[in-house]
Design brief:
A hairpin with a 2-residue loop joins strand 4 and strand 5. 39% of the residues lie in helices and 20% in strands. It starts with a strand and ends in an 11-residue tail after the last helix. It is of the alpha+beta class. The protein is globular and about 60 Å long. It has a 7-stranded mixed sheet with strand order 18-19-17-16-20-21-22, sandwiched between helices. It has 2 domains: 2-238, Nucleotidyltransferase, domain 5 (2-Layer Sandwich); 248-429 and 465-498, ATPase, nucleotide binding domain (Nucleotidyltransferase, domain 5, 2-Layer Sandwich).
C-alpha cells in the first residue's frame, strides 16, 4: 500500500487529493478543497499566492489528522503565471493573473522586435497574449522595479514548492509554456533571454516530471509537526497531469482536458514545429516521459462561469445543474459564438458580450439564460470538432474517438453534444484527471508503476469511464457548416473579432 498526496490548483479552485494504491487499484479521497479567487487591486489583477500556500499547509494538516503520512506529494496548477524571488529569498510582489490587462497589445509590440516566425521556430509554443514571455515583456516596458530586484523566476507550482522545500527548480511541462524554453536544445533559450534583456541566472535547472525536488523544509516540519516528506516535481502544468491520467490503451489517442480552459490535442514523441503549425496556432507543450502535447487552447467553460457570476450579480443565483437543465430545454443550434474571440478573454458581462457577438455576425442574439448557455455549450462542441480535425491533420493520425477528462465531464450535455459534433464516440473520465495524473507520476517516481502505459491501465481499471455515441449526424454536420461560416474558421487562419 502506498499513499501519495496531490495538490491540484485550478483557475477557480484547488484541492488536496489523497491517493492510495492497493492491490493494483487506485482509491482517492479529497481531504481539502478551497476557492482560488483572483484579487483586484486598483487596475491590477493578482493571484493570492500566500493564501494558496496556506491552503497547501491545511491540506497537509488534514492528511495528518487522518493518521496518514504520504510517501510523497506533488503540485500542479495552471500555466504561464509566475513570481519573483529577491536576493533575500523572499517573494517580490503578488504574481499577476494571466487575465490582467497589462499584456494587452504586448504580443504585437514584441513581434516588431522578434518576429513571430522566430519565436515559434525556437519554442514551438502557440501565441496567446498572456504567455509568460509577453507578461515579462509588459513588465519591462512598464519599467517595473520587480525586474531590478528579482534574482529568481519561478512558475506558480515552482514557487509553492520553493515555499515548502526551500529549493528552487523549474519543471519541464510548465517551463515549456513560458515561450522561453527551446525544445530543440532542451533548455532555456539563451538567445531569446538575451534579446529580451532577461538574466539567464533567473531561470532554474529544469526537472523532468517524476524527479525528486526536495523535502519539506525544517520550518514547515516544525510548524506542522511533520517529517521530511519528499516533494516530487510531477507534470506541474495541470494539463500535463490531466493527459497523464487519460485511460487510453492505444498509443495514439486524442484528448480533451475540459474545465475553465479546454485543451484538445494528442501526445507525440517530438514537437511539430513547422509553418503550418504556427499558422494554425498550435502548441507543443512538455509532457511526461519525454513526450510532448500537440494541442490547442480553447476558451472553455470560463465563458459559462463568468455568465453565471454576472447573473448572480444581477440577483439570479443559478446553480450549474439548473443552467444545464435550462440549456437542454432551449432551442437547439440556434446561435453560435467563436469561444476564442478576444471579446471573451477578460472578466465581465459575458451574456451581454455573447449577444453583442451574435448581433455583429447577423444572428438573433440569445436572451434567456437557457438560450445563452446552450449557445456556449454547442459552440464549444463545434469548436472541439474543428480543433480535432486540425489535430488529425497536423499529427498525421486518425482518431476513433475523443477522451474527455476533467471537471467539465460532469456536464453530460457538453459530453453528448461533443460526441454529436465530432461524429465519433466520447469517452468521459476520470473527472479529477489532473490530480490523478499527479498521483500517477509520483507512483512512477516511487517505483510502483513501471511507466505511463502501466499507470494508464490501472487508472482505467480504477475509475469509471462513461461512453457517449454520436446522434443526429446530418443535423450536426449542417450546424458545423454554419458555425464555420459565422465564426470565419473555414480556413487555416481565423480573423479575430474584437
Amino acid at each position: 500500500m502506498s499513499y501519495t498526496l496531490a495538490f491540484d490548483l485550478g483557475a477557480s479552485s484547488g484541492r488536496a487529493l489523497l491517493g492510495r494504491l492497493t492491490d493494483r487499484r487506485i482509491e482517492t479521497e479529497e481531504v481539502h478543497r478551497f476557492p482560488n479567487d483572483p484579487v483586484q487591486v486598483g487596475d491590477r489583477l493578482h493571484w493570492d499566492i500566500l493564501r494558496l500556500y496556506h491552503e497547501l499547509k491545511q491540506g497537509l494538516l488534514k492528511t495528518k489528522h487522518l493518521g496518514i503520512v504520504p510517501d510523497s506529494l506533488g503540485i500542479d496548477s495552471w500555466a504561464v503565471d509566475f513570481g519573483f524571488v529577491g536576493p533575500d529569498g523572499g517573494l517580490l510582489g503578488n504574481p499577476f493573473h494571466y487575465r490582467d490587462r497589462h499584456t494587452d497589445g504586448m504580443m504585437e509590440k514584441l513581434f516588431a522586435e522578434i518576429p513571430a516566425e522566430t519565436l515559434f521556430a525556437r519554442t514551438g509554443i502557440q501565441f496567446l497574449p498572456f504567455n509568460s514571455i509577453f507578461q515579462l515583456y509588459a513588465l519591462k516596458k512598464a519599467g517595473s522595479p520587480l525586474l531590478e530586484q528579482a534574482r529568481h523566476f519561478l512558475m506558480i507550482p515552482d514557487l509553492l514548492r520553493y515555499f515548502l522545500t526551500g529549493e528552487k527548480w523549474s519543471e519541464f511541462s510548465n517551463a515549456t509554456t513560458t515561450q522561453l524554453y527551446n525544445p530543440l536544445t532542451g533548455g532555456w533559450d539563451g538567445e531569446l533571454l538575451g534579446r529580451l534583456g532577461l538574466p539567464a541566472s533567473w531561470f532554474a535547472q529544469v526537472l523532468q516530471p517524476g524527479s525528486p525536488a526536495g523535502v519539506l523544509r525544517a520550518s514547515v516540519r516544525e510548524e506542522l509537526d511533520l517529517g521530511a516528506i519528499p516533494v516530487i516535481a510531477v507534470a506541474e502544468h495541470d494539463t500535463g497531469s490531466a493527459v497523464a491520467a487519460v485511460p487510453a490503451l492505444d498509443r495514439d489517442f486524442a484528448y480533451l482536458s475540459c474545465g475553465t480552459w479546454s485543451l484538445l490535442g494528442t501526445e507525440i514523441d517530438r514537437p511539430v514545429i513547422d509553418e503550418r503549425a504556427r499558422r494554425l496556432n498550435f502548441t507543443n507543450e512538455g509532457g511526461v516521459s519525454g513526450t510532448y502535447r500537440l494541442l490547442k487552447n480553447i476558451m472553455g467553460l470560463w465563458i459559462l462561469q463568468e455568465s453565471r457570476r454576472e447573473w448572480a450579480r444581477q440577483g439570479a443565483d443559478y446553480s450549474f445543474p439548473e443552467l444545464v437543465r435550462l440549456a437542454g430545454e432551449a432551442k437547439p443550434l440556434a446561435a453560435f459564438i467563436e469561444p476564442d474571440a478576444p471579446l471573451f478573454l477578460h472578466p465581465g458581462d459575458m451574456p451581454a458580450r455573447i449577444r453583442q457577438y451574435c448581433a455583429q455576425t447577423g444572428q438573433r442574439p440569445p436572451e434567456e439564460p437557457g438560450e445563452i448557455v446552450r449557445c456556449i455549450l454547442e459552440s464549444l462542441a463545434l469548436k472541439y470538432r474543428y480543433v480535432l480535425e486540425l489535430t488529425e491533420s497536423l499529427s498525421g493520425r486518425t482518431f476513433g474517438g475523443l477522451h474527455m477528462v476533467g471537471g467539465g465531464i460532469h456536464n453530460e450535455l457538453l459530453c453528448r453534444w461533443t460526441s454529436n459534433a465530432i461524429g465519433k464516440p466520447v469517452w468521459a473520465g476520470p473527472a479529477e484527471g489532473s490530480a490523478i495524473g499527479n498521483l500517477a507520476v509520483q507512483w512512477i517516481a516511487g517505483g510502483h508503476f513501471r511507466d505511463m502505459a502501466e499507470a494508464r491501465r490501472v487508472i482505467r481499471e480504477s475509475f469509471p469511464v462513461k461512453d457517449y455515441e454520436p446522434e443526429a449526424a446530418e443535423v450536426w454536420t449542417e450546424a458545423y457548416g454554419r458555425f464555420l461560416h459565422i465564426t470565419e474558421l473555414s480556413g487555416p487562419q481565423k480573423r479575430n473579432r474584437n
